[in-house]
Fold:
Amino acid sequence: LDLFCTMSRRMVEADIVIFNTSITACEKGGKWENALQIFRAIVQGKMKPDRITLNSTISACEKGGQWEKALQLFSVMLQNQVERDVVTFSVAICSCGRGSR
Structure:
């Protein structure tokens, strides 16, 4: 995440792969808020989030107990016709499970 911030300060343009890698790092580190922040930066920067972007962000929210945010992101996938896969549905189901506790 520090590298991502350094790139921004040095005006190095990030592509979707760099954003996705940053979101995945946040997910692995339990930083769901940072993952959402990066996701918002993608959308605000007029870049199109892909399946990896959304799966990683949904997973970060799910792991952080933010099941409502995870399901909102799942809805974003549907609205934007982003292809879903086994990972997408698995994380969405886990999120629902957390919400029922």
Remarks:
- The first helix runs from residue 2 to 9.
